[in-house]
Amino acid sequence: MLRSARYVLETLKEHNVLEDLKVLYPNYGITICGHSLGAGVATLLALLLKQSYETIRCYAFSPPGCVISESGLPETENMVFSVIVGDDLVPRLSYEVFFHLIILI
């Protein structure tokens, strides 16, 4: 996921997309969204962009549960909004869950 987020960021920079949009719409912020694995990529991309852009929002629909470590959560509190629906399995998966599953098996 991090490799994908870095690829998107480099592609945006290579084509001057963010700089051009900042000139055209100076009062606008950046909003990123993604679903499932794409939500993980969107979250990481938002963290990478946060270094250069103040107004970043990320809407992560059913993000994987292993995107951010617990120590990194404060960085995302006011920036990433996650939506998890019903019993969706992907957001509930984490390394800890897998280790627990191995013990049970």
Automatic annotation (TrEMBL):
Alphabetized CDD domains for the sequence: Lipase_3 (cd00519)
InterPro entries linked: AB_hydrolase_fold, DAG_Lipase-Related, Fungal_lipase-type
This protein's record includes keyword Membrane: yes
Subcellular location, record wording: Cell membrane
Superkingdom classification of source: Eukaryota
Residues that span the membrane, as ranges: 28-49
Gene Ontology MF, one: triacylglycerol lipase activity
GO terms (BP aspect): arachidonate metabolic process; diacylglycerol catabolic process; neurogenesis
Essential cofactor(s): Ca(2+)
Fungal lipase-type domain mapped to chain residues: 14-96
Enzyme class: hydrolase
Any one GO cellular component localisation term in the record: cytoplasm
Keyword annotations of the record: Calcium, Cell membrane, Hydrolase, Lipid degradation, Lipid metabolism, Membrane, Metal-binding, Phosphoprotein, Transmembrane, Transmembrane helix
Catalytic activity: a 1,2-diacyl-sn-glycerol + H2O = a 2-acylglycerol + a fatty acid + H(+)
EC number: 3.1.1.116
Pfam families named among the record's database cross-references: Lipase_3 (PF01764)
Ribonucleoprotein in keyword set: no
Protein name, entry field: sn-1-specific diacylglycerol lipase
